[in-house]
Design brief:
Length: 471
């Protein structure tokens, strides 16, 4: 019975049934990818359709959230605002950057690794912008007299994305040590949860679903199958005892295990987390039973959880789900052949470039979910000399072809807004061209994009294909 919306970064799949609209959200505005190439009026999507953002992205997402609250103020609603910052590229409006760019930093990273002070200042400015936008949400709830009956949660998803001060903990984003995985978690339910209460028991993002379900009176049919725990006894002080638990952190082949008092790191070292947040003193030799029990728990968890890995996951990208109008196939999900190259080694916001031969091609491994006819658009750039080139898109015996009729010689952009040099791809202003209407039959296959004719020395740079069901 809740109105639901997510505005921001979604990193759980782009194509239905993994798209947020297929995961229970009525409204989605943002991008379904891990990082984005520009935060100022970028290419985004609204419920699958490609749109253009309005101003600085975090402000824009907050605007959408405020509108959603206004629209649903008389009923129950769930608003999820996954901001993309302070993920790189390090872009932030001047108002916030100017507060930090010339100021000294009183607290610095404690380890041996080198801290990039300009990067840190940019991150702090971006967090200040987040704070401002969170304040806008809370103030709006107060204005509408909704604060007393609204649960507000604020949290992050990992440790800092660079070596900077983090309370003396070891590591950063991408590490499975305390500094890589420990984040703030604030929850407010005015006049229901005691203000200022601090809870020492460890918890996980997995706990949010069962906790919110319990607090809002929403029954969960799958409650027994969930890995998370209902935290409401801790929040309301209803339970004097709380069973110890294990939280597993896994990233890029490395795994650590955290109990209430200890952490076993990926290399089998044991630390007392009540005394040693920086993980400097290995106590494994002094506590062999604790080390062995955590090692066994880690082994069992890996066997149970990682039966599917990047190496053996053979799922194709789904296309044409019958319940949804749009499907995107971005360059991120494609495979280049011949001379074609990806614009950057970090794939999420990349495009394909250096298409200089009729022998070059791009493929996508797809799984057509249901038969249908689809209008297909290609988001591209190309020089004037490429006008007249003929592109063909095929899947088995189904083929469509179209001639490039307009040039779009857009230059790379994004660097003009970066506060420090980025690692990810720069972007372009890609525009759509219609390839035609394609008939697809249910089943798996390889979608191929190639050039039948070339008018110049290159064909086009390719950002994505957009399928729109028309039957």
């Amino acid at each position: 019975g809740y109105a639901t919306a997510v505005y921001g970064k979604w990193h759980n799949g782009m194509q239905p049934p993994y798209h947020p609209n297929a995961r229970g959200f009525d409204d989605f505005y943002g991008f379904a990818s891990g990082h984005w190439g520009n935060y100022f009026s970028p290419m985004l999507e609204h419920n699958g359709a490609i749109v253009k953002g309005d101003g600085f992205l975090v402000n824009d997402l907050t605007d959408k959230g405020l509108t959603f609250i206004d629209k649903n103020k008389e009923k129950t609603f769930f608003l999820y605002l996954p901001y993309n910052t302070p993920h790189s590229p390090m872009q932030v409006p001047d108002t916030y950057w100017n507060r930090f760019k010339d100021e000294p930093l009183e607290k610095l990273y404690h380890g041996e690794e080198q801290e990039n002070l300009k990067f840190t200042k940019a991150a702090l400015a971006m967090v200040e912008n987040i704070d401002s936008n969170v304040g806008r949400i809370v103030s709006h709830l107060q204005k509408l007299n909704l604060e007393d009956n609204t649960i507000i949660i604020y949290l992050s998803d990992n440790g800092p994305n660079g070596f900077r001060w983090n309370g003396g903990m070891r590591g950063k984003k991408g590490w499975v040590d305390e500094g890589g995985v420990r984040t703030p978690f604030y929850i407010q339910w005015k006049d229901s949860i005691p203000a200022g209460k601090s809870i020492k028991e460890i918890a996980s993002v997995l706990d949010i679903l069962p906790t919110l379900a319990e607090m809002s009176g929403v029954p969960l049919e799958t409650k027994k199958a969930l890995d998370g725990k209902d935290l409401s006894p801790l929040l309301f002080g209803e339970s004097a005892s709380w069973d110890d638990r294990l939280i597993f952190n896994h990233w890029n082949g490395k795994t650590s295990v955290r109990s209430q008092n200890y952490r076993l790191d990926d290399e089998g070292r044991l630390y007392d987390m009540n005394k040693d947040l920086g993980q400097t003193n290995d106590i494994a030799m002094a506590y062999p039973k604790i080390k062995d029990s955590l090692e066994m728990a880690k082994t069992n968890w890996l066997l149970e959880t990682l039966s599917i890995t990047k190496e053996n996951d053979n799922r194709a990208f789904t296309v044409g789900h019958p319940d949804y109008q749009y499907t995107q196939l971005p360059a991120r999900d494609g495979i280049p052949y011949g001379n074609i190259e990806r614009s950057n080694r970090f794939p999420n916001d990349t495009f394909f470039t250096n298409w200089i031969s009729e022998k070059d091609s791009i493929t996508w491994d797809i799984d057509v979910v249901a038969d249908g006819s689809f209008e297909v658009e290609l988001y591209y750039t190309c020089p004037l000399a490429a006008v007249g080139s003929i592109l063909e898109l095929s899947l088995d015996n189904s083929k469509i072809a179209s001639r490039i009729k307009e040039s779009n010689d857009a230059a790379l952009n994004g660097m003009e807004n970066d506060r420090v040099p980025r690692m990810e791809s720069y972007v372009k202003e890609f525009v759509p061209m219609t390839l035609g209407t394609m008939v697809l039959k249910k089943g798996k296959g390889v979608l191929v994009l190639k050039a039948l004719e070339m008018s110049g020395e290159s064909v086009a740079d390719v950002r994505l294909l957009l399928f729109r069901r028309v039957d």
